[in-house]
């Protein structure tokens, strides 16, 4: 007599690597990294000095920062304050650690070593993000992460990947009802970049709407614990390493990629104080829009869509919008459940701006090969418009009165009993309550 096997109703939300969506994603994760390494080829051979990296499209803030800050001295020197990396504390510590472990001597050797290690970490990071995206409630498409053209363009330009991975893990953990882990990952992400603060706001508002207020102390406690574990020792050893990135931000005028840089291109730059004030106002606008979306949507919005709206607003209103910052949008596009058409239109605009910014920078030192400021302004506005388009599409998806399509991302919790419930098919993906 056979005994029927009990299958958990939530087992469908725990895919294995052999599932159709995960196995290809894991195998394809190396493609954007290989493309990024190939793009770095001329600089890996000849170095990142002079204007040649601009004409070869291989300039990298990561490689240049390692040399200018003397990061080859290692983590110990960084903790003494002797390595002035213009990075938040967690990314500065990691880059210094990697650079100090380099097997060779000389600046170029160290730069090659850091890029090689970062390429390996990038593959691991993409695999992790693909896993987290696919195993989030709603099971979004992880190919949006591992086949993102923007990842190939940006993943070796800066250490932003560390913050992106931590923030993505935090959103995943909240969707899986692990508030303390979500807080810890987002708190660590804040020590790598500031954008996770906005994600914490979005999570807190969604917690209020969906009746998960009791989990907020664990979310906040996890975030504070992560910040304390990373920040307190660094404050005691080298406080300037903790504050350098943010103090530099306050003192820096409008930079490349920002709409506030267009007056500079026209020969009438805005003062640093004005640009900083407008950027802070942009952050406040992002918080207000996140609140309106979370509390005003007819259905409980997806956390991925809410996060995409908030981060996009901060990016396009910031003092600078460097090429590498677009990497933050890659996992959010996947988690928001946007279509490939939207993704590729955005990627096309990013590609145009990618070429234009290097031609413009190279032309600052070689007028015979320069890209006119007017053309760079066009590329800049095209890119900003594409990011705004993503935010609009995410808003429309989040406020739709129809249930999300299969494969879309519903990272919010079930709504309060007084609110409209999700469809049965969608609710079947929601994880049972648990916490760490």
From TrEMBL:
Q: Where do the segments described as Disordered lie?
A: 403-436
Q: What is this protein called?
A: Uncharacterized protein
> What species is this protein from?
Knoellia subterranea KCTC 19937
Q: Does the keyword Lipid biosynthesis apply?
A: no
Residue ranges annotated as transmembrane are 113-133, 145-174, 180-207, 219-238, 274-296, 303-323, 343-361, 373-392
- What high-level taxonomic lineage is stated for the organism? Bacteria, Bacillati, Actinomycetota, Actinomycetes, Micrococcales
Residue ranges with Basic and acidic residues bias: 417-429
Q: Where is the signal peptide?
A: none
* Keywords recorded for this protein, A-Z: Membrane, Transmembrane, Transmembrane helix
